Sequence to fold (152 residues):
Amino acid sequence: MSRRMSSPAAVSPLWRNWILACSGAMVASGALMVFAPDANAMLFNYVSFYQPHFPASFSAHSIDYIKFVSTVLGAVMIGWGIMTAQIGFGPFARGEVQGWKSLAIPISTWFVIDTAFSLIRGYPGNVGFNLVFFVPFVVPLIATYRHFFPNK
Fold:
């Protein structure tokens, strides 16, 4: 005789929509990196070098390479933002534990590694960027923890 398991309770639309907003911001940030490389470079320079332009010691080739890598990173951010939106509107919204974990584990892993290396390499400004993305994603994860893990 088979036991029918009940479906998990759906997550509040507030948290589902919050994840969508965070995902949209990630896509928009990635699009800035891809489609507005000069504006992105200026922002990168403020965060990394506390000035709007690359240091004079950077060669033209180095600057081109930094812009190339930033474009690739922007494309990754666009893809990651689309993925987090799909998880947010799929398994997370349906209240499936795997949906919560599929957001919490990669975002936390990225934050710890990126932040640690930003500090080790001497770029504390990047830690600020990391917090701008991490904290808004963490708010709905913390708010829904008991929903997904009621016995913990």
Observations:
- The longest helix spans residues 60-92.
